[in-house]
Amino acid sequence: MISPVTMRAVRTAGAIPNSEFLLEVEGVRKAFPGVVALDDVSFRLKRGSVHALMGENGAGKSTLMKIIAGVYSPDSGSFKLRGNEIELNSPLDALENGIAMIHQELNLMPFMTVAENIWIRREPKNAFGFVDHRALRDKTEELFDRLNIRIDPEINVGELSVANRQMVEIAKAVSYESDVLIMDEPTSALTEREVEHLFQIIRALKAEGKGIVYITHKMNELFEIADEVSVFRDGRYIGTHKADDVTRDDIIHMMVGREITQMFPKEDVPIGDVVLSVRDMTLKGVFHDISFDVRAGEILGLAGLVGSGRSNVAEALFGVTPATSGEISINGRTVDIRTPAIAMRNGMAFLTEDRKDTGCFLVLDILENMQMAVLRDKYVSRGFVAQAEVERECEQMREALRIKTPDLNERIENLSGGNQQKVLIGRWLLTRPRILILDEPTRGIDVGAKAEIHRLISKLASDGVAVIMISSEMPEVLGMSDRIMVMHEGRVTGFLDRAEASQVKIMELAAQ
Amino acid sequence: MAMEQVTQPAQRLERPQRRRKLPSEVNIFLVLIGIALIFEILGWIVTGQSFLFNRQRLLVMILQVSVIGIISVGVTQVIITGGIDLSSGSVVGLTAMIAASLAQTSDFARAVYPALTDMPVLVPILAGLAAGTVAGLINGSLIAYTGIPPFIATLGMMVAARGVAKWYTRGQPVSMLSDNYATIGSGIWPVVIFLVVALIFHIALRYTRYGKFTYAIGANMQAARVSGINVGRHLIKVYAIAGLLSGLAGVVLSARAISGQAGMGVAYELDAIAAAVIGGTSLSGGVGRITGTVIGTIILGVMTSGFTFLRIDAYYQEIVKGIIIVAAVVADQYRQRKRRKA
């Protein structure tokens, strides 16, 4: 094994043999507390090619990319760069060894110019040690000419469109003479014409002999730009094929071809009247013309890949980020849900996707975390909280949900993820909702707690609650839902009944 | 079998017994005792006198920090929401001027409002409180509706309120206040007002919905919003209360000095923030108690008296005060980290 420093030195000297593969990853394993994110994964990137990575959310694509880009180091397995075994210790290490990641959330400094952003830490200096702005400009223009990018190098990055910022990121990566470029869903924010321009640049990079790792959810892009495609599922490597040799159906089958072994206990309960009815709900640029009904006792699953707008629909329903047009009616009455308070008054509850960011009050204790929503209109007289009563209710909820803690006065941050989630569910159950929106209710939770939460959701449905459940886990969606609504790029692409739904059908609607 | 029967009831007994943890104020209270004891010992060594066993000194000790204490009760609430209030000192100056101008006696030939002399004592008090509340409402509204950081909104108010205070009488002090008004600041009254205010807001923070929402917003503003809390409206309330208490401090201070001066309360906001922070209020929000703030305020008072008692220069006092503020926060973060690991 050679050190990154030696490797860098050798590369600068131009003495690296032209091996066929830029990158060879073999038998890589990476575990995080509680989950194995990657298990025995292999991956090879050819010189002058675009290699697409596909898989469902949580299949392990991003973890693999982060290993290649030096963000994580693998627990085991071998990692060869241009034929030599190497160990990367940081993203900077990776960058200086010719591996550049074009980030999804762009990492540029908005108040610096395009040129300054590209050459940061490497600015050309004049005789006095100051930045030589003319040289900076010339170097940038030269780089842009090579890539056929037309952006003024002296404009502030903050003034650029998302597409142009992405171009700058790519140019920056190329400026490091990187030959491995990682693009994570680069077209998610681009218009069709911008995508075309991006593909031109990618082809130019290919012609220069660079290798591009391209993560995408979009089938049509895959067939347009990729030479090879590797599919991942549940942290495992499924296979690699030439893009010309496979069809869309083949890939979908590779992505979802798992056995459903876990049991999901959604009971058959009588489905009641329509409780929530949504018509043509639109939030400009995010989701469009969403229409659906949910009935009492029904669980409506909401499936779709990350970025399809599922969570945005939930946030709009609950008034967190209200929709710009459309109609929501509850029990047949039109309601204008502008704030979460209005949603709650109409019997809604919303378990958010991100426990830490929008769920828990980490520094407060369990009791306070649980009572915070219900205090809006119960257990308070003349401003004073009926402490004993609330505590009794919370204690009952703790028993019912089997929250494992010695003491409700414990800070919630000291609980496990599963127990935190139960506390948050308890927070909403105290408000006795008629419509319950759950966004990834079992993400990052151990199997035992997961089963308990599934049982609980099913129980609520049988009590007549209308449930909307967003989930990225196919088995969960299939097992729990009476009906499944599938979204793709901000639009509903179809509904599937419990009887007809399958992983393949969902994926066909979700990845068009 | 027999063993199970023995162990089971024992377990059951343990559960309902709530494991009451020591409140975090205990630590800071021990620090207070420690500092007081150091002065006591030094007192015997240096001057041959007791530091603590002197009623007059104990009264003065708390009296001189009562005004700071009233402000810090409001500032604590602001900091719990994750904000900051830099305007309190200036609002003290402004409200002192306004209240004093309505508390003048007719014996004085050059009253600010010659037609409004010899007013009932309630008038200047209410005017001072109202002016403070308005300043707080402006702070809160700016933060809630424009989304600018509390630091900036209250920095603006700090500069502007001081300006208004000076403009109010073109820089002239307001004197010749009525005896009734002066009573508010005399004797033990400021201490009583401070402690009553502290008690009211201690109860408000712990037992009312207002208090729960205040902590919730500081702990996680996004989660508070999703839980149905009207965050903007609540923040306006909290800043208005902080303004009201600054107004009260202005009234007490002008009554105690029997005059209103535009320069009153300079840098008081910093002492008030220091008292809250020493008392365990976390600048990242969601954590803090009024009891802690009261102890923090008294620590500031003990230090001032102690140094005066030992006839040590005020310079050293400021140096030590600075060190204690930083040490309090360092100790707090250390505790937090240990807690998180546990």
Automatic annotation (TrEMBL), chain A:
GO terms for cellular component: plasma membrane. It catalyses: D-galactose(out) + ATP + H2O = D-galactose(in) + ADP + phosphate + H(+). Residues 23-259, 269-509 form the ABC transporter domain. Signal peptide: none annotated. SUPFAM superfamilies: P-loop containing nucleoside triphosphate hydrolases. Belongs to the ABC transporter superfamily. Part of an ABC transporter complex involved in carbohydrate import. Could be involved in ribose, galactose and/or methyl galactoside import. Responsible for energy coupling to the transport system. This is Ribose/galactose/methyl galactoside import ATP-binding protein. The lineage of its organism: Bacteria, Pseudomonadati, Pseudomonadota, Alphaproteobacteria, Hyphomicrobiales.
